[in-house]
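INTERNAL TRANSFER SHEET
From: sequence group
To: structure group
Subject: Malic enzyme, putative

Please process the attached sequence and return the structure record in the designated field. Keep the field labels unchanged so the import script can parse them.
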Amino acid sequence: MRGNFVGVVSDSTRVLGDGDVTPAGGLGVMEGKALLMKYLGGIDAVPICIDSKTCDIPVCYDDQQCIAPVTLAGLLNALRLVHKRLEDIKMVFIGAGSANATCLRLIVSTCADPKKIVIFDINGSLHSGREDIEKDSRFNGNGSIVTKPIVLYCGNPVLEIYPYEAKEAGAYIFATGRGDFPNQFNNSVGLPGILKGTLIVKAKKITDNMTITASKALADFAEKRGIIPDNIIGTMDEPGISTKRSRGRYASYQRRKKDIKEAREGADLLIEKKFIKEFPQGLLDESINTAINVATK
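Return from structure group:
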């Protein structure tokens, strides 16, 4: 277990779909994430819900270092499909929270031009000395027509715009955070592989260079097996997505492959023997609908 053990830690103040539920209230979500770590990455994980917000060990922030690499990977493949370069495109970020801020940092670090990026928060666009959105000179004058626009909306479960609406409005490629629509951007696509690599090389922390490298590996993985506008990123259960081999890392690749194979075989056996029951689809649909109804009231 040593060298392959992580904690899935939360103070439960921002649990997906529930918000602040006290430390104990978030345990179920953390248990689910721990199960995904084992099944997808062969990583031994324990769920921990705590009051303290301090941690003196290497930390991988779920909504930052996990979803941002997946978003960057999807963007790279979307650009391949529309034959555009990252450094040439204009981008708009809706939201300036921790997840979007990390996405922005990785995208700019990869080679995007920050002068071609506009960021909005709840008060409008971000710019020096802003008083309102109309003072931003980037919005003055005539707008240019965008060919084959790419919309990466990572909301989940409530979407402010749905795929059919985006396509009707002209989006060529559209992604969401939901698994019942094409192009799901889910942190579980990147998290197991990033954590597994961190553990194997005994890294002291997870850096932007590590996550950018993971993004490119995820993008290459999907491109190799084939990408189309409605399928630009791999899914968490695709064989090999968490074991993408790095140059000169054959031994670690074999170890990741072995650990994940054993973890999945163990989980499949538990399912076969009915120790793990199949989740009722009706209950899942009901949960999604309840979350949407609560959020839209």
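Handover comment: The first strand starts at residue 5 and ends at 10. The domain at 60-244 is CATH 3.40.50.720 (Rossmann fold).
Transfer complete.
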